Amino acid sequence: MRPTLHPPNSIMIVDHEASSLLSTDTTLKVAGINNTLACQASHQVLALMVNHPIETMLLDLNMPDIDGQRLLDAVLQRNPELPVIILADVFDPKIAADCIKAGVFDYLVKPVEADRLITAVNQALTFREQKRGSHPPPQPLHRDDPERYEELAHPDVFKKIVTGNKKMLAIFHYVEAIATTMQPVLIRGETGVGKELIARTIHSISGLKGTFVAVNAAGLDDTVFSDTFFGHAKGAFTGADAPRAGLIEKANGGTLFLDEIGDLTQASQVKLLRLLQEGEYYPLGSDAPRTAKTRIIAATNQDLSKSLHEGRFRKDLNYRLRTHRIYIPPLRERLDDIPLLLDHFLGMAASQLDKPKPVPPRELVPLLCTYSYPGNIRELEALVFDAVSRYRSGTLPLYSFNLHILGEPSRGRLATRSPVNSGEPPIRFSHHLPTIKDATRLLVEEAMRRSDGNQSRAARMLGISQQALSKRLINMKKKA
């Protein structure tokens, strides 16, 4: 009698190393996941997918013949709803971020602990099953066609977020796909990108009857966190004359948004982990556990991979929190939203300051697109409000914008440096390095493009005088 296959459709394991392939396959079969399909050759993957229904895929990035990332794109193009778990030889933050943006389900680094591998595969199988049960099937994160904006099931909810950017529109569809589950969500992104706004949107779509409660974990020691989060019993400490409900109880049946999750102390992480695993918590001073049915959404602007490596953040808590993951791109990666955001903030500022809405000068948008926005959308909003507060009539003056963007070269000009903690180099090199002369020419051309031909602004971006830039432009024209 043939054994029952689990899952009914195959789990494809793609790895060019025979020993690694065998180890992964054995680990899954020991755990009862016995329907596997092994593949060592990257050029055979797509052909195998035609003849074998695939439930999920474990993909080694370091594949010969066809590069793992190219193969990933091809696989997701063929089957966009397939949960793909990446197996990487080393952790590369840039590659990991690119993979997650592309729509992978998880990213693991070899050698993978057996429990971690099995957990990831089981989560992928559960995710696959949930997607089958939904109608219509949720669209994958990487399919970011802007025409699909009107296909959103809840367009009115998303209209609160001002954007026309492809990456943001793709996130909206992913939010709709995960909003109705009770699984945790981890939202990553720099300060000011709108993580709480996305969290509130998830809650709005979720259908949960309870309330949305937000708490910032930054700067909270374990006692304060526990009291705030779980509440306390009468007599738990001096001054605790009456029991007090914590935020988890206030959010029961709803959503608890835990911001700056990366700042939690180790002791607080253990308590949060118990809540996620068991659905139980203990108020301070109480021996009786309480249960909570609350959706947890966590957010961080930190690089959790670095915190994990340094032992400041628990691996098991990280695995629990990241069932669903959303990465919100910084404003410098969605400069096409600048005109929309500028118009929105001009109208908002004019209304709040009781002034007529200013007319922005033609040079303003090109100027705003030269800046890297360390504070992201929140910084742009403050910049526009400050300019409107100085505004009297006619065209909006550029003075405050120039002072902020051009007058403080260390603040974040795109042409000179990336913002603090961005993790990205200001210049990316191809395999062929340009000469110093070619690199200088390219920098000058880029500065002139970003400044819309304004030599004064371009010179400030480059950190040289206008006379020096003018001389370079004349020499470039002679040699052209």
Explained architecture:
The chain is built from 20 helices and 14 strands. It has helices at 18-30, 45-51, 68-78, 93-102, 114-133, 155-158, 166-178, 195-206, 222-230, 247-250, 266-278, 304-309, 315-321, 338-352, 364-368, 376-390, 399-405, 436-450, 455-462, 466-479; strands spanning 10-14, 36-39, 54-60, 84-88, 106-109, 185-188, 212-216, 231-232, 244-245, 255-259, 280-281, 290-291, 295-300, 324-327. Strands 2-1-3-4-5 form a five-stranded parallel β-sheet, with helices on both faces. The protein has a five-stranded parallel β-sheet with strand order 7-10-13-6-14. The N and C termini lie far apart (78 Å).
How are the SSEs ordered, and which strands pair?
Elements (H helix, E strand, L loop, with lengths): L9 E5 L3 H13 L5 E4 L5 H7 L2 E7 L7 H11 L5 E5 L4 H10 L3 E4 L4 H20 L21 H4 L7 H13 L6 E4 L6 H12 L5 E5 L5 H9 E2 L11 E2 L1 H4 L4 E5 L6 H13 L1 E2 L8 E2 L3 E6 L3 H6 L5 H7 L2 E4 L10 H15 L11 H5 L7 H15 L8 H7 L30 H15 L4 H8 L3 H14 L1
Parallel strand pairs: 1-2, 1-3, 3-4, 4-5, 6-13, 6-14, 7-10, 10-13
Antiparallel strand pairs: 8-9, 11-12
Helix pairs in contact: 11-13, 14-16, 16-17, 18-19, 19-20
